[in-house]
Amino acid sequence: MTPRQLRLNLFVYPGGHHEAAWRYRGSAPERMLDAHYYQKIARRAESEKFDAVFLADGPALADNVRYASRFRLEPFTSLASLAAVTERIGLIATASTTYFEPYNLARLFASLDHLSGGRAGWNIVTTGAPQAAGNFGLDAHPVHAERYDRAREFVEVVTKLWDSWEDEALVADPVSGLFADTDRVHPVEHHGRHFRVRGPLNIPRSPQGRPVYVQAGSSEDGRAFAARHAEAIFTAHQTLASGQEFYADVKRRSAAVGRDPGRLLVLPGISPFIGATEAEARALHDEFNELTQPEYSLQMLHRILGLRLTTAQLDGPVPRELIETGGERGNGSRFQVILDIIDREQPTVRQLLHRLAGARGHRVVVGTPEQVADQIQEWFENGAADGFNIMPPWLTGGFDVFAEQVVPLLRARGLFREEYEGRTLREHYGLPRPEAVRPVPTTAGHGAG
Amino acid sequence: MTPRQLRLNLFVYPGGHHEAAWRYRGSAPERMLDAHYYQKIARRAESEKFDAVFLADGPALADNVRYASRFRLEPFTSLASLAAVTERIGLIATASTTYFEPYNLARLFASLDHLSGGRAGWNIVTTGAPQAAGNFGLDAHPVHAERYDRAREFVEVVTKLWDSWEDEALVADPVSGLFADTDRVHPVEHHGRHFRVRGPLNIPRSPQGRPVYVQAGSSEDGRAFAARHAEAIFTAHQTLASGQEFYADVKRRSAAVGRDPGRLLVLPGISPFIGATEAEARALHDEFNELTQPEYSLQMLHRILGLRLTTAQLDGPVPRELIETGGERGNGSRFQVILDIIDREQPTVRQLLHRLAGARGHRVVVGTPEQVADQIQEWFENGAADGFNIMPPWLTGGFDVFAEQVVPLLRARGLFREEYEGRTLREHYGLPRPEAVRPVPTTAGHGAG
Q1: What interface predicted TM-score (ipTM) does this complex get?
Q2: Among chain B residues, CA nearest to A24
Q3: Residue A306 or A412, more confident
Q4: Which DSSP string corresponds to A230-267?
């Protein structure tokens, strides 16, 4: 029997994950709008037998785009483009339950799953950036709890839409003239607090039944949501202990709501700086840090922590006493990660900015290929991870180094596949294809939410 | 100087345009959810140097899917998939101004235009099918005039979003550290009757600036809208006289609002049944008619005309006196096309259903390759068309016949390109790349709408 295997996704951030990636000599900022650039990256990840490529998203322009590659192409179109030039690799799109209509989102994912032969995943987000509200006619970004309330009902609605065609409903029998057996296509008749959706979907059930449900928030609401709905979680942890706590907690929560914890994969982010020696890796990391622009990171710090600092304060301590830990902002999971760094490491402002520059709160590992592989193995074998979301500091080279030097070590240790065994993302992840749940019309509240 | 050239789009309807296409022996109904099927069709159209492939759409399931292939994959994902396997051909997506959010639609098109290197077109529709309303929480489908009012403002908003990045705004200079010159990225600050959108878009301006604006309604509202906004019009006409009237009318209207009428292309639909002899073509057409199912067409007749007839009435006259010509339904352009057929031809119900089975009101031409080419040339040279939307009765074979037998005749007559000269859809259509219009914040109404 094959031992438990790592699940590895490639997180594709235009230019790379480090905020200064686009300034690094190995980067190609002029290609960030070029389909062939992403196709090359996805094909490379597929040739390494990665489980999936993952695209983040948000429906607003980041303020600090002046200093870094803070935009991206839209994920559905990008992944459909990648689907056409790959055969096996999973395709995970981030899409917001706060700023999409359920019927439109359900169609986009059903199509992506058909077009890719069953490789779609949905990273379910409620959108953290408050400036999105102004792009959708809202006076204010809905508060955290309200966004999660809508998210729960949103997932319920789109699940009903994806299940509205029975698998056998598309008959297409030229002789009898029966194209779709409409007795097997069901309205959803959802009447909830946030949505009223009649259905059915206008696309037959897709190869995976539904996209793989992925979730990325680790707040209290986020954990509860993930325990109930997610099949994979992307999460940010700086220490093994934090990763273990989270892993045990969400597995326990999912068991508590009657789910098989084995069907909820925990995939922390990791951004590897790799060198032939540890000193070389550190030099590489330093080189990136020297390319950072404090104006960029100070804006990020303001957004996440609410601290408005100036470049004059870079070499002083982080004014911990000015950080308001309660309220809406304190609900964000990334807030807590950064607060922990401050409490644990007591960095100067500049040191904190450098800590965050690599992956905005995700874990940065700096070392030799063996050291990176050791870190991955340690988390994997000690109850902190079922796999990882690999976040190369820069693209495409930062991934090439990982692929060439770390992946072979993981294979030699029996931790990662040599070949794909399945064809769908569910198969790569070891997740079953869900049975269609026949909807029961709801008339109040959001039943299963 | 090259003489005036035909613009030819391939209308890709799953299985083909005839309602019974999926039952025809040359059809492949089992492939309607298969990306490779559409890729093969698009590549073939590109090898014939067609201007574009065109995908219809609507956010609801048609009632009569029991009898025919009345569903389709979602256009943005489908066309992004086709963009990846083609180089030149335009990609026109139908998308509804009634059921999309402007910011989401703007991002999808900007991405498609980037991913395709400037080949995106937007078929702007307000959605005719009333059952869509129930999928979006509305009590009723907005009436025609209301939908067009929203459409005008929608186009205004997304135009502002597409123009929000100046072409030079993306600097990406690693040395200075300036990624985006935010002085050249402008908020849109739109405050209208239907939408409030702050902007800017989170994607730099795309190769074409904006997708080509296409429009498909020919009602009074539709013509006024097209005259102001459209760069290409898809329209349904049964007779040369009707086509000429429409052509002259929309060109005149566009001139009246200060536009160059040469930058508004009129592209009627045409569905060709081709045989080596006229008799063979008629036999082919008869064969398709024999595969039709009256239950299907009677539902369509009810939807478009409001007539609820039974199969027992097939061989009697169309009860013209029961058709209510005023009101909301009478605003639909397809309504008028069908009413004209009834008045002109006095068909039995069955004859009318057969007339509509080929292309639901679009013109069906039955004849030899020469006869089909003659019809195209006649309309093109007599003020009824700048080109055509080719609607093969079945796919893929129905297009192969057109490509092999009619296209060479059009080329021999100097009417259609031998090779692409441009790379973008705008270049194929002979349309300029629009200058970005700097938005003036609106505080009431919808200024330019």
Answers
A1: 0.95
A2: B174
A3: A412
A4: -SEEEE--SSHHHHHHHHHHHHHHHHHTT--GGGSEEE
